Amino acid sequence: MAIFTDQLRETADFGPGDEDWLHLLVGDWQLVADLAFADLVLWFPVPGGTYMALAHVRPSTSHTVFHTDFVGERIRKDLKPLVDAAWQSQDIVRSDAGDTSAGEHSMLIEAVPMVRNGRTLAVLSVHVDLAGTRMPSQMELTYKQCAEDLLRMCTRGLWPDFATPTGSRRGAPRVGDGFIRLDAKAVVQYASPNAVSAYRRLGAAPTLEGKSLSEATMALVKDRRMTDEALPLVVSGKMPWRTEIESMGVTLSLRSIPLRNSKGRYGALVLCRDVSELRRREKELVSKDATIREIHHRVKNNLQTVAALLRMQSRRMKSEEGRQGLDQAMRRVATIAAVHETLSQGLSESVDFDELIDRQFRMIVEIASPGQHVTTERTGSFGQLPAELATPLSLVINELVTNAVEHGLVDRDGTVGLDAERRRNAGGEDILIVTITDDGVGLPAGPRQEGLGLQIVRTLVSSELSGNIDWEDRTGPGTRVLIELPVLAKR
């Protein structure tokens, strides 16, 4: 998510990596908001001696303080002195506990400077609603202490860590999914009820507190050869990475956030989440995709077998007309097989039709012109087409190119052209215009008699492709065939 405009970059005094560091913060600060039960706002200095709100996050563990979004607005006058003090002191500055500057809310506000390489880059304001305050539980106290630890690391440039994975893999653990606090020796100081439940499903003991999380986790691993190498470093709190462990049919996603100060690492936070159902569904999807690919592969093999049988039967035919009919049927089957071969090589519901037709175009011409010298010209681009359009369009092009060679050029040398153009029509719909040309004898005078091939073309264009087709004489010698069809985008 981009939080800086070009105008703000011009006024910012950033060194190498500073902007990326702030982007990392905004990408991961939901963690702090949930631990602090607070709204977080990122303030950045702008000309005029004031600050602008660049980003805002609300907690998922508590209600929000600000119901309206004020990103892009200038800072309030009553909040500015607090932010100024944090910017200049490079330390956390707190307001009075009974501050009501946000309206009717009684709030505690903290201004936390984002300091990196000794320079203040921005200020984070933390807004905690004190309305309805009660005696906090051990979980709330632990959460808030961890939030304080992370914010203190921000003032020293120690968090966020560039080694933290930025991928958005489904199932990344959150605070509410399961939370564990470790000391410097990876001994569990606190484990939330959800974390204990998740570990029990893996086969761990009913309690985790007072035990080494590293030892408790590694004891659940049945086969060390199949274990992620990052697992020991994550559960010992040494590295800010993510990993997974699987045991007894349960898959647990783990994430570690080491806690550091100027003296070194003094503890860690470990988030965990049961992602068994998510991974099971992902495996099902992979299995279904593999099955679909295998079906396309087998259909292609079966069609190639049919084409080979037709070829064998054609060689035994004594009738020239019968041999030609079988050869045409063989060519049509081979065209359909080529589409299924393309579909068997990927997971997409669309087909790179340019790659498919480039292989076929020259082959169609060579088969249709054994005693001629016919050149081909390919222009334009079909682009990605839905799979359901690929087969009928391939057959249509096959028939029209064959017709151009056999009837347009009539045993003479010449050129067959194929052009494709994607455009928007007057209604804003994406359409494809396919043009097939030859420099042969042109259209016959009088009414045309259509054979089986052209009947197949008309049927496919009107019914399968929902398009229009038209034949016309070129300005020079030869014929031009125009096909226009809608291309429905896959949703």
From TrEMBL:
<keyword id="KW-0547">Nucleotide-binding</keyword>
<dbReference type="InterPro" id="IPR036890">
    <property type="entry name" value="HATPase_C_sf"/>
</dbReference>
<keyword id="KW-0902">Two-component regulatory system</keyword>
<feature type="domain" description="Histidine kinase">
    <location>
        <begin position="294"/>
        <end position="489"/>
    </location>
</feature>
<dbReference type="InterPro" id="IPR003594">
    <property type="entry name" value="HATPase_dom"/>
</dbReference>
<dbReference type="Pfam" id="PF12282">
    <property type="entry name" value="GAF_PdtaS"/>
</dbReference>
<keyword id="KW-0418">Kinase</keyword>
<dbReference type="Pfam" id="PF08448">
    <property type="entry name" value="PAS_4"/>
</dbReference>
<dbReference type="InterPro" id="IPR013656">
    <property type="entry name" value="PAS_4"/>
</dbReference>
<protein>
    <recommendedName>
        <fullName>histidine kinase</fullName>
        <ecNumber>2.7.13.3</ecNumber>
    </recommendedName>
</protein>
<dbReference type="InterPro" id="IPR005467">
    <property type="entry name" value="His_kinase_dom"/>
</dbReference>
<dbReference type="Pfam" id="PF02518">
    <property type="entry name" value="HATPase_c"/>
</dbReference>
<dbReference type="InterPro" id="IPR011495">
    <property type="entry name" value="Sig_transdc_His_kin_sub2_dim/P"/>
</dbReference>
<dbReference type="InterPro" id="IPR022066">
    <property type="entry name" value="PdtaS_GAF"/>
</dbReference>
<dbReference type="InterPro" id="IPR038424">
    <property type="entry name" value="H_kinase_PdtaS_GAF_sf"/>
</dbReference>
<dbReference type="InterPro" id="IPR035965">
    <property type="entry name" value="PAS-like_dom_sf"/>
</dbReference>
<keyword id="KW-0808">Transferase</keyword>
<dbReference type="Pfam" id="PF07568">
    <property type="entry name" value="HisKA_2"/>
</dbReference>
<keyword id="KW-0597">Phosphoprotein</keyword>
<dbReference type="InterPro" id="IPR004358">
    <property type="entry name" value="Sig_transdc_His_kin-like_C"/>
</dbReference>
<keyword id="KW-0067">ATP-binding</keyword>
